[in-house]
Design brief:
Layout: E1 8-13, H1 14-28, E2 31-35, H2 37-41, H3 45-54, E3 59-62, H4 65-73, E4 79-82, H5 91-96, E5 99-103, H6 106-119, E6 123-129, H7 140-150, E7 155-162, H8 174-191, E8 198-202, H9 204-209, E9 217-218, E10 243-248, E11 251-255, E12 260-261, E13 267-268, E14 273-278, E15 293-296, E16 299-304, E17 312-315, E18 327-334, E19 337-339, H10 341-347, H11 352-357, E20 365-368
Parallel strand pairs: 1-20, 2-3, 2-9, 3-4, 4-5, 5-6, 6-7, 7-8, 8-9
Antiparallel strand pairs: 1-10, 10-18, 11-14, 12-13, 14-17, 15-16, 15-18, 16-17, 18-19
Helix pairs in contact: 1-3, 7-8
The protein binds pyridoxal-5'-phosphate.
The site of pyridoxal-5'-phosphate has 11 residues, from loops.
């Protein structure tokens, strides 16, 4: 099988993505925009998009127009939306490829309008509203005059959305306040006859914590890959992790006492120790931090010495049968043991999002269904 020709690789369970999306769709009963920016959170944008569409996603959301254009070229026919900035010079391509852009600033919209006029055709857009994220978005009071001014123009506003800053902290009251601000604006737009048909706000955390913010579409990213939006949120057991990171032992040898292991000899063997090598390092998006573990023979074993760019060393005394060619799991399950992305994120003092987004391009992605 293909996997035999790799020394380290990612296994991506596309069926998990499909089922996770289908579950969110059943749970919410509204349209799902699968957020697959940053190479589908490291899982591979095109396969992730295909799997999500199979699960019922009618939209795919990305951060940049280049990501949307690549998905179109790859044959994704679902609605595609750029959630971040689109350079005005790319507006003609957005129009040609039926890609929906975000408008978050009246002056940005003005430039887009000029490009749309030159190009001919209509630019499809959703307006992004600032309700508490403190990032991109029009102030609520800017929206009514903005939409009025665009009526009959080359920009067709088909949706309105906002983004939550703290939906993973349901007790804080912060998201409720964001929802109130957004709802107030929606009521005003309704009254003025200006409310766009699509309304969306919910990221993964809000899908599970704020049903009142589902509107007519939800925008989960992290959850469709079977990850929890925050260590404080218990992952819904219906969601299945899609990613496993594996490697093979490429060397196993016994070193005598006093042998320094890896750069700087920060680890020195105390007795005759069996030390294994895996061909994984920070060049793959692994991290050069201490106190890490991987799974060998269904057991946790420590990484010893400094992680190099392309290799890391394992202390194998607890798995005496381990030999070159054996499978090692860096993220995922082996036997009864599991190292979750969250566990790795904690060791790296970060969040699971950063772990998967940092997985290097050079890691082969093997897709299973
Ligand atoms: C605008 C927007 N919507 C939705 C998402 C999806 O968020 P999550 O991965 O937490 O579900 C993101 C991701 O950061 C985003 O920027």
């Amino acid at each position: 099988m293909e996997i035999n020709s790799y020394s380290t690789w990612l296994e991506i369970d596309l069926n998990a993505i499909t089922q996770n999306v289908a579950y969110i769709k059943r749970l919410t009963g509204v349209e799902v925009m699968a957020v697959i920016k940053a190479n589908g959170y490291g899982h591979g944008a095109r396969p992730a998009a295909q799997a999500a569409v199979q699960g019922g996603a009618t939209w795919c959301g990305v951060a940049r127009i280049e990501e949307a254009l690549a998905l179109r070229r790859a044959g994704i026919s679902a609605e595609l939306m750029v959630l971040g900035y689109t350079p005005p010079s790319k507006i003609p391509e957005a129009i040609d490829q039926q890609i929906v852009v975000s408008l978050f600033d009246p002056s940005q919209a003005e430039t887009c309008l000029n490009y749309a006029r030159i190009n001919g055709g209509r630019l499809r857009a959703h307006v992004k509203v600032e309700t508490g994220m403190g990032r991109l978005g029009m102030l609520p009071e800017e929206v009514v005059p903005f939409l009025r001014a665009l009526q009959g123009s080359a920009i067709q506003v088909e949706g309105i959305f906002t983004h939550f800053a703290r939906a993973d902290e349901p007790e804080s009251g912060y998201t409720q306040r964001q929802i109130e601000i957004f709802n107030q604006l929606l009521a005003e737009l309704e009254q003025e006859g200006l409310k766009p048909p699509m309304v969306h706000a919910a990221n993964s955390a809000a899908v599970f914590n704020f049903p009142q913010a589902w509107y007519n579409m939800v925008r989960p990213g992290n959850a469709i890959f079977g990850m929890s939006p925050s260590p404080a949120i218990h992952l819904d057991p219906a969601l299945k992790p899609a990613l496993t990171w594996k490697a093979r032992l490429i060397s196993v040898r016994t070193f005598p006492p006093g042998q320094g292991i890896s750069y700087g000899s920060i680890y020195t063997t105390k007795s005759n120790e069996r030390i294994g090598v895996i061909p994984v390092g920070y060049g793959d998006g692994f991290r050069r931090v201490d106190n890490q573990q991987v799974l060998v023979g269904g057991k946790r074993v420590p990484i010893v010495g400094r992680v190099c760019m392309d290799q890391a060393m394992l202390q194998l005394d607890t798995v005496p049968d381990a030999k070159p060619g054996d499978e090692v799991v860096l993220i995922g399950t082996q036997g009864d043991e599991c190292i979750s992305v969250d566990e790795v994120a904690k060791r790296w003092s970060t969040i699971n999002y950063e772990v998967v987004c940092g997985l290097a391009d050079r890691l082969p992605r093997i897709y299973t269904k």
